[in-house]
Amino acid sequence: TQTDSWEDVWRLLPSFPLSSFSLSSLSPCSLVGLGALASLTAYWLATRPRPTRPPCDLQAQSVAVEPSCRRSALLPDDVLLEFYYQDTRTAYDMFQRGLRVSGGGPCLGFRKPGQPYEWIAYSEVAEQAQVMGSGLLASGCQPNPQQFVGIFAQNRPEWTISELACYTYSMAVVPLYETLGVEAMVHILNLAEISLVICDREEKAAALLENKEQGATPSLSCLVLFSDASAALVERGQRCGVEILQLTQIMVGPGAQRDRGDPGETLPPKPEDLAVVCFTSGTTGTPPPINILNPKGAMITHGNIASNTSSGSFVIGQEDVSISYLPLAHMFERMIQLSMFCHGARVGFYQGDISLLMDDIKTLKPTLFPVVPRLLNRIYDKILGSMTSPLWRALLRYAVRRKQAELSSGVVRNNSFWDRLVFNRIQAGLGGNLRFILTASAPISPTVLSFLRAVLGCLIFEGYGQTECTAGCTFSMPGDWSAGHVGAPLPCAMVKLVDIPEMNYFAKNGEGEICIRGPSVFRGYLKDPERTQEALDPEGWLHSGDVGQWLPNGTLRIVDRKKHIFKLSQGEYIAPEKIENVYMRCVVVLQVFVHGDSLQSHLIGIAVPDPEVFTDWTKERGFVGSYEELCQNPDVQKAVLEDMTAVGKAGGLKSFEQVKALYLHPEMFSVANGLLTPTLKSRRVDLRRVFQEQITRIYGTTPV
């Protein structure tokens, strides 16, 4: 019987003189100690950190559909996700849902220098969007997806309201940005036949007028300014047939619109309608180098947007807040905003000055922080540079190891002993409320990612994608805090790898060019069938131009780039961006540009030293001088090159992938000087042009 079985087990246990034991035999101090131990044990069991529960098996994050082709393990079958909520199939629907679930709560935030954030309610944003949309119709726009409206402005509430105004009446948005250059801007205005552009500043309106005066943009007929327009600008516009309006002039009440024959009824878009034409100078697919003066206009539909924003694997709540500073002219920031709106959350805008971003973040206290890897690298370098004493450095390294040990077991928190002792001050610098950080647009070093996950005590997700698949196609899974990959396919996308024989990548080995198919893949390039065919094959696969590798757990690793590869004279293929990402792990290097060509047998580099680290770094090695003087010192250049070479060797670079000579440049590459794109990617053509003199000189003096 069961009783007999228990008696048999009991007889096998060692005997203890339990009969002689009683609580009454313990001293009062011992009783208090036992009670305290029991209480502490109960407290620890109740409050111990618990690992994040992953939504799927982390050892099988994607499912093979066919050899080298995989889909998300979050899907029940091979049918990809087109929308999450039945009532959110367009960008317009997503905002309307936010309006309902927020109860008219705060939506868009802005601030004046030194002041707290002020908020515009969801209901007010919706009303302003409808009124502005009616005003656009009264100004000659047509309520259909073939009506393209240009927005030429920095991130601010009016940008978002203008976009929603267009969607309220089924019009499509064409974002413009300063770094496109005059020729590219003219190309876009003419290709899209844009008649009306919304601007934030008079200087931008004046630049557009100049093109019109020269006869370069005949279709342009109206400019709407967020700010006041001077009488001189209005008169100048009249002379060349362009009406200059202030935003307040088209923001008139519904009654006034009805008096002008407009019933004021909304005309929301359908999922298949065009939402945005996003112009990019990227080199998707396998064409020859793109002429940056004629960027490609990726046509993104409302269905593309609904599919992509519905595929996120993290939960946004009404209490969440995002900081908007990445350009709204690009899809990454727009997808973040629409995801926030769909759940009734808030978006706070920075003041427009990147040097004040950290102050804006401290004031806003965001819970969601979208970033690009360059910014995370900057935060990483700043944290390391601030630990000047050997004791603090040792303590930081130990604390990071302890937090990383928790991460390896799935625990992410910011209330540990090490957070209180070491990391809370760093976390406070980012507002102190971060729940998650999203990084995309370029690879990030696994070292930096693991370090910041430990230090910041929040979820850091890494994704991969491009404009042509609306934003992301892979995303790291909650609970998987390993580094060195960009996650598994999103539920809206299938991802496959195809052979690149010339680079020795083959799909049978789980390596090849990354191709994407699904409801988030764009319709094609505006009025450009040739380049559309180069990017989209007959089966609907988008060829990214990037090289990936499937890992055993079903995640994707970016291993190379097809976009900017070139051959050295000995026939070796070089992917410079991969090499640059390795060199970025060098503490003293802030930015680096790797150059080579088919007439040379070796690579050279242009590096910008980190001003916050460089002086102390060189002083430790016996060099003195100003930042500029140190950059010009040949011995310093040699020391930096040796450090980069060591980092490159540790990062697995082959000998022919290492730069053999280096020029140190004292000025950062930036959007302002035309060496970075608005998403902070290197403009390789411009970098080559700007540093042509140094490149020629270095090759002329470097022994082969």
TrEMBL record:
User: What Pfam families is this protein classified in?
Assistant: AMP-binding
The family database entries (InterPro entries) matched by this protein are listed as: AMP-dep_synth/lig_dom, ANL_N_sf, LC-FACS_euk
Superkingdom in the source lineage: Eukaryota
Question: Is Kinase among this UniProt entry's keywords?
Answer: no
Question: Locate the AMP-dependent synthetase/ligase domain: which residues?
Answer: 115-526
User: Which reaction equations make up its catalytic activity?
Assistant: hexadecanoate + ATP + CoA = hexadecanoyl-CoA + AMP + diphosphate; 12-hydroxy-(5Z,8Z,10E,14Z)-eicosatetraenoate + ATP + CoA = 12-hydroxy-(5Z,8Z,10E,14Z)-eicosatetraenoyl-CoA + AMP + diphosphate; 15-hydroxy-(5Z,8Z,11Z,13E)-eicosatetraenoate + ATP + CoA = 15-hydroxy-(5Z,8Z,11Z,13E)-eicosatetraenoyl-CoA + AMP + diphosphate; a long-chain fatty acid + ATP + CoA = a long-chain fatty acyl-CoA + AMP + diphosphate
Assigned GO CC terms: endoplasmic reticulum; membrane
Tell me yes or no: is Ligase among this UniProt entry's keywords: yes
Q: Which UniProt keywords apply?
A: ATP-binding, Fatty acid metabolism, Ligase, Lipid metabolism, Nucleotide-binding
**Coiled-coil residue spans:** none
* Signal peptide stretch: none
Q: Which PANTHER family match?
A: LONG-CHAIN-FATTY-ACID--COA LIGASE
User: What name appears for this protein in its UniProt entry?
Assistant: Arachidonate--CoA ligase
